[in-house]
Task: inverse folding
């Protein structure tokens, strides 16, 4: 089996102006014509979906996952199933967050907050803009949080 | 801890390694079985849906300027 990293799929369907596109396509064509087994880790597949989530209609992300597997004849390892878990969250939960146009790392954090952080008031991050309106809790920069604390005192 | 890959054949009851293995007697191992290795072939409807996806993906400027930038972001590289 030949394993593909996320960049191989992303160059082929998103970054077609990349200087490596032609070689990348040549490799994919060859794998197809020789009927080679092509695999991808669940990690790399989720990363690919996360990046592509910024470019497709949110509601179609699950269909896109299915199409990527079909079109590139991918064997996802471990097996791809919405019931599978990642970071103790179901893949379906991650997809739901990616539908809000989140990259994998952010989607995992959002899903873990939603599934396990029942008593959290807010998330403090310097990257609040990446999470705005996408989490089950409010998102603040440390500066904003300090300001809010001062006002409340 | 190291990982050892062993090819084995299932005889209907147990897995039999194709080659001798150098492990202490009584060692417990975990066997991963890959089934149905051949992925399904897309139908013409699937191909049509895929073309629509490609057009949609290509119809807007990427959020990340390059594939490297996209992976740097998702993998948290500095």
Result:
């Amino acid at each position: 089996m030949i394993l593909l990293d996320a960049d191989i799929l992303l160059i082929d369907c998103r970054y077609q102006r990349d200087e490596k596109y032609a070689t990348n396509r040549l490799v994919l064509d060859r794998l197809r014509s020789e009927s080679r087994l092509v695999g991808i880790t669940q990690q790399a597949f989720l990363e690919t979906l996360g990046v592509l989530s910024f470019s497709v209609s949110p509601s179609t992300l699950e269909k896109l996952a299915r199409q990527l597997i079909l079109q590139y004849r991918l064997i996802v390892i471990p097996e791809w199933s919405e019931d599978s878990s990642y970071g103790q969250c179901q893949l379906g939960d991650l997809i739901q967050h990616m539908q809000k146009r989140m990259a994998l790392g952010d989607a995992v954090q959002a899903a873990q907050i939603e599934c396990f952080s029942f008593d959290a008031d807010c998330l403090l991050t310097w990257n609040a803009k990446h999470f705005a309106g996408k989490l089950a809790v409010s998102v603040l920069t440390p500066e904003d949080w300090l300001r809010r604390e001062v006002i409340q005192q | 801890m190291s990982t050892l890959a062993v090819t084995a054949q299932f005889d209907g009851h147990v897995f039999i390694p194709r080659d001798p293995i150098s492990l202490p007697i009584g060692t417990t191992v975990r066997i991963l079985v890959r089934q149905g290795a051949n992925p399904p072939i897309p139908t013409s409807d699937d191909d049509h849906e895929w073309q629509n996806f490609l057009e949609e993906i290509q119809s807007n400027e990427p959020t990340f300027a390059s594939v490297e930038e996209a992976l740097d972001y998702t993998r948290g590289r500095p």
User: Anything to note?
Assistant: Chain B touches chain A at residues 34, 37-42, 46-47, 49-50, 53-54, 56-58, 60, 62-64, 66-68, 70-71, 73-76 (CB under 8 Å). Residues 8-34+41-75 of chain B form one domain.
